[in-house]
From TrEMBL:
CDD domains: PLPDE_III_YBL036c_like. It comes from Blautia stercoris. Belongs to the pyridoxal phosphate-binding protein YggS/PROSC family. HAMAP family: PLP_homeostasis. The modification N6-(pyridoxal phosphate)lysine is found at residue 35. Residues 24-227 form the Alanine racemase N-terminal domain. InterPro entries: Ala_racemase_N, PLP-binding_barrel, PyrdxlP_homeostasis. Pyridoxal 5'-phosphate (PLP)-binding protein, which is involved in PLP homeostasis. This is Pyridoxal phosphate homeostasis protein. The lineage of its organism: Bacteria, Bacillati, Bacillota, Clostridia, Lachnospirales. PANTHER family: PROLINE SYNTHETASE CO-TRANSCRIBED BACTERIAL HOMOLOG PROTEIN, PYRIDOXAL PHOSPHATE HOMEOSTASIS PROTEIN. Keywords: Pyridoxal phosphate.
Amino acid sequence: MSVYENYLEVEKKVQEACKRAGRNREEVTLIAVSKTKPVSMIEELLPHGVVDFGENKVQELTAKYEVLPKDLNWHLIGHLQRNKVKYIIDKACLIHSVDSIRLAETISQEAVKKNVTASILVEVNVAEEESKFGVTSEETEKLVEEISKLPNIEVKGLMTIAPFVENSEENRLVFRNLRNLSVDIAAKKFNNVTMNVLSMGMTGDYEVAIEEGATMVRVGTGIFGERDYSK
Ligand SMILES: *Cc1c(COP(=O)(O)O)cnc(C)c1O
């Protein structure tokens, strides 16, 4: 199957999940996670109007940004080191992975320098897995409140990477908990904070995530095939 055929399969499942949940398809952005994959595979999707792509490494995002049309939306979904913020501050449309006030401060400072407003999500380690980045659910509100005081940075919502499970139903509560957390934080009405974005769901579990309120799903393998890290 071609990349575009894979994409259409995923798109169909996104539509079906929206239907089951009584949601409009427009409420959910399907992000094609192109990390480790060549520009040529991204280019297969461009004639079909696909504009949202996800990368987890700054260097890879900027390299692809340079050679592809400038009207694409680049989502930085991986862990971000503070010394690399300056390279993507005006290239990423949304940074999904903010999990400390120090990182948020750096993003704010670089955004001020470039006279842009950075849009970010706070990454929550809902399942409290040792191996994962992200703040705990308990720490999230405090971090959002601290970030809300910084200039040139807007918190658009929350992101989580759910555990790897055989049966996606096992992650339903993780997604539900993230949604509930975002509703609680939205009610606080912090400055520069909206909780309209819920970035959750990957190849193995995006349908359940949509049923539980995801507004962005990040699908890599399902669109581009397995990744090969050996090269
Ligand atoms: C790689 C990655 C994805 C996509 O994973 P797949 O299982 O291949 O769909 C989604 N989110 C993040 C943060 C990732 O690093």
